[in-house]
UniProtKB/TrEMBL annotation:
SMART domains: SPEC. This is UTRO protein. Residues 3-64 form a coiled coil. The gene is Utrn_1. It comes from Onychorhynchus coronatus. InterPro entries: Spectrin/alpha-actinin, Spectrin_repeat. The lineage of its organism: Eukaryota, Metazoa, Chordata, Craniata, Vertebrata.
Length: 254
């Protein structure tokens, strides 16, 4: 009777493992929304816990069959053979569920990381857009134009590392058929805005550089003119002081 019960327990354990494999490993999952992906991650975590909890039952079966084998070798030997099959299948099931759980957790982590990089770069784009708008109505002063140019250039020096991460993470998920529609839409919108603002900012930068160069040249010309007028004023004052007749002066002084 003991052998019959143990044989029944082994059969039940094998049946449970077959059902677990069908439910957790053989179903075709499609992750088209973050909610579906998150639910799948949580489901695989529960599956892993459920399978690992059966380890106690497997150990009890193993100990009982060993004990029976010492008392009734013939019955114990047959059960030991069946036990080995169950143990192999159980270990295989544990490894496969662990692997799938780890993969889904990695995928979820990849999705969250992608969102974080998108948030960082979107904040940078907002800052860039604000700096570009600030260059629209500048006072016609050299310092104001110079400050606006330096401010814009400081934002444009933003490294490209985050955008590289966005591209690689997005492509990894899309290649796996995971959230591909949502990610493609997000990347398309981000890239379009990035291209538009980058071109606008670079164009505005060139305009400011040209404006600054013109203002510096004008400022230099005015400075030279002022120096010339100062020298001329000094000469005329000297002529007047010395009571020199205008017709005695050089032509340029006249």
């Amino acid at each position: 009777e003991k052998a019959v019960n143990l044989k029944k327990d082994l059969a039940e354990m094998q049946e449970w493992m077959t059902q677990a494999e069908e439910e957790y490993l053989e179903k075709d999952f499609e992750y088209k929304s973050p909610e579906e992906l998150e639910n799948a991650v949580e489901e695989m975590k529960r599956a892993k816990e459920d399978v690992l909890q059966k380890e106690v039952r497997v150990k009890i079966l193993k100990d009982n069959i060993k004990m029976l084998a010492t008392k009734v070798p013939s019955s114990g030997q047959d059960l030991a053979t069946e036990l080995n099959v169950v143990l192999e299948n159980y270990q295989l099931l544990c490894n496969r569920i662990r692997g799938k759980c780890h993969t889904l957790e990695e995928v979820w982590s990849c999705w969250i990381e992608l969102l974080q990089y998108l948030d960082l770069e979107t904040a940078w784009l907002n800052n860039l857009e604000e700096r570009v708008q600030m260059t629209g109505n500048l006072p016609d002063k050299l310092d104001a134009v110079n400050d606006a140019l330096e401010s814009l250039e400081s934002v444009l020096r933003h490294p490209a590392d985050n955008r590289t991460q966005i591209r690689e993470l997005g492509q990894t998920l899309i290649d796996g058929g995971i959230l591909d529609d949502i990610i493609s839409e997000k990347l398309e919108a981000f890239n379009a805005r990035y291209e538009e603002l980058s071109h606008l900012a670079v164009s505005r930068q060139i305009t400011l550089e040209q404006q600054l160069q013109t203002m510096r040249e004008t400022d230099h010309m005015l400075h030279v003119l002022q120096e010339n007028l100062t020298d001329l004023d000094r000469q005329l004052t000297s002529y007047l002081t010395d009571r020199i007749d205008a017709f005695q002066m050089p032509q340029e002084a006249q």
